[in-house]
């Protein structure tokens, strides 16, 4: 469900643009704001922004995800034997310790990036986490591996919220879903590329006296740090700082963002009144549970896909290669789903469709006894396709239904922080003792997917009911509030309509 009001709310996860905003501009600038925006100039600006912003962010997050999950590729190349990862739950601990620091530092990181140049901040984080990843190739004890995984989480924590924050300053809300899904394709590219790289790097086993699994960390970490140096000169900064736009383009950006912000649905002041609207908002907490629920199948699958394929009967290098078509299928589902979702202006229906795909896949895996390897391999595709299609959609849907700077900032940070608990859950779903059937892992992941779907249904029903009440004028009593509060209500304003 959509409305003209609903389509006039940008994703505001940061401070409002701009030294020459309508509040501070002169009379001439205010007159210029009343002039219609040239569609041709606007399309040209969007093309330029897309080419400048997303390619480098795609690569940065791809390397972030690759360096996060390459431990799963290294595990089946001998790391488990060298470091004793098969003892008890050691591998699971090495996986989820990353998420402890990652979860704790996401919100503080976004507080820092507000005060500095994103190009320098994000590239510095990238350079250091690349070094951390390289160091994993030289560890000789399990304790050292765990410590480095914790530090990896420290320096990767600011990447996703930082990128969402920066990009939100350049695009209107209804322009964001396709771009977000394209951006999240970096995760499936990382998964597929990681398998291909691991297959190639495995041939280096013994070079310089180092095992193949060590070279996976060393080469991929070095590549990350090298790209970080380039990123320092390429990543876009805040709109008022960027060197990519001339004065005319900056003014056009300011004007189009200003037309996208309805004054009646703002929340630019953080006070007792606005906190009273933020904390109790069911959409933020349901959105966080949705993101956590739908992320468990994808993250657990990413961590353990090479191991699962190994259990299907392939050798290590064969298993690495066969991760590639799985991730390619997931990327296709992600792109097609995003296009169709934007076309129909609907999110909840597509998340439920993804849930159905995941359910089919896990049902096949839970009944795999006596089935062929082709049957088992085929079951993996709907799990990954459905899970990866809905992950960026869960993020976009919440942002679609929050309005105002502070509401969206708090909502985005809370959703990502709580949602990443899925990494801790997913890391513990496939212990070696459950091989080869992994009934507990598949069943638990499916249960969390249904948890997310249940929250989707509840949130859609509640927003549908609220839209009906607002259309019937049952919230118009809020219009009698003091002007200071009326202009600081965000999506609680009676004129706002929710997107289902």
TrEMBL record:
Compartment annotation: Membrane
Region (Disordered): 1-34, 473-500
Record keywords: Membrane, Transmembrane, Transmembrane helix, Transport
Protein topology in the membrane: Multi-pass membrane protein
Keyword Nucleotidyltransferase: no
Gene3D superfamilies assigned: MFS general substrate transporter like domains (1.20.1250.20)
One function term, GO molecular function aspect: transmembrane transporter activity
Domain Major facilitator superfamily (MFS) profile per the UniProt entry, residue ranges: 53-470
Superkingdom of this protein's organism: Eukaryota
Biased composition (Basic and acidic residues): 1-10
GO cellular component labels: membrane
Keyword Transport (UniProt): yes
Pfam families reported for this sequence: MFS_1
Transmembrane region(s): 51-71, 91-108, 120-140, 146-168, 180-201, 213-236, 284-304, 324-341, 348-365, 377-398, 410-430, 442-464
InterPro entries reported in the protein's UniProt record: MFS (IPR011701), MFS_dom (IPR020846), MFS_trans_sf (IPR036259)
Name of the protein in question: Putative transporter-like protein
């Amino acid at each position: 469900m959509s409305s003209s009001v609903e389509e006039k709310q940008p994703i505001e996860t940061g401070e409002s643009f701009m030294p020459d905003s309508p509040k501070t501009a002169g009379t001439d600038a205010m007159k210029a704001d009343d002039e219609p925006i040239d569609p041709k100039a606007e399309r040209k600006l969007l093309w330029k922004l897309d080419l400048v912003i997303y390619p480098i962010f795609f690569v940065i997050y791809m390397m972030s995800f690759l360096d996060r999950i390459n431990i799963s590729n290294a595990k089946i190349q001998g790391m488990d034997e060298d470091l004793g990862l098969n003892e008890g739950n050691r591998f699971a601990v090495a996986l989820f310790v990353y998420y402890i620091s990652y979860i704790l530092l996401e919100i503080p990181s976004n507080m820092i990036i507000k005060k500095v140049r994103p190009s320098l901040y994000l590239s510095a984080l990238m350079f250091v986490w690349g070094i951390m990843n390289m160091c994993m190739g030289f560890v000789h004890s399990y304790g050292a591996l765990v410590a480095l995984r914790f530090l990896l989480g420290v320096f990767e924590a600011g990447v996703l919220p930082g990128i969402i924050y920066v990009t939100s300053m350049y695009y209107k809300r209804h322009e964001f879903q396709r771009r977000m899904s394209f951006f999240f394709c970096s995760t499936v590219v990382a998964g597929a590329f990681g398998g291909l790289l691991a297959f190639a790097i495995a041939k280096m086993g013994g070079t310089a006296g180092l095992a193949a699994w060590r070279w996976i960390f060393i080469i991929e970490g070095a590549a990350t740090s090298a790209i970080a140096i380039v990123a320092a000169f390429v990543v876009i900064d805040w709109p008022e700082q960027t060197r990519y736009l001339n004065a005319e383009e900056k003014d056009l950006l300011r004007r189009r963002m200003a037309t996208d912000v309805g004054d009646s649905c703002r929340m630019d002041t953080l006070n007792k009144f606005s906190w009273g609207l933020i904390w109790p908002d069911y959409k933020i907490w349901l959105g966080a549970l949705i993101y956590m629920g739908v992320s468990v199948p994808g993250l657990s699958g990413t961590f353990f896909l090479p191991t699962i394929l190994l259990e299907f009967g392939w050798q290590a290098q064969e298993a690495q290669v066969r991760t590639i078509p799985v991730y390619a299928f997931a990327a296709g589902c992600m792109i097609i789903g995003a296009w169709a979702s934007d076309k129909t202006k609907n999110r909840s229906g597509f998340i439920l469709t993804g849930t159905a795909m995941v359910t089919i896949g896990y049902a096949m895996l839970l009944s795999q006894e006596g089935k062929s390897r082709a049957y088992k391999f085929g079951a993996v595709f709907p799990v990954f396709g459905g899970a990866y299609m809905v992950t960026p959609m869960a993020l976009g849907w919440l942002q679609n239904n929050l309005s105002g700077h502070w509401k969206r900032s708090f909502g985005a940070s809370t959703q990502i922080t709580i949602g990443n608990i899925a990494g801790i859950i997913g890391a513990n779903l496939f212990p070696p003792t459950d091989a080869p059937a992994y009934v507990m892992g598949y069943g638990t992941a499916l249960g969390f997917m249904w948890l997310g779907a249940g929250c989707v249904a509840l949130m859609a029903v509640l927003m549908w009911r609220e839209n009906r009440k607002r259309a019937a004028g049952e919230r118009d009593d809020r219009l009698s509030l003091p002007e200071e509060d009326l202009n600081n209500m965000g999506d609680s304003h009676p004129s706002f309509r929710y997107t289902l």
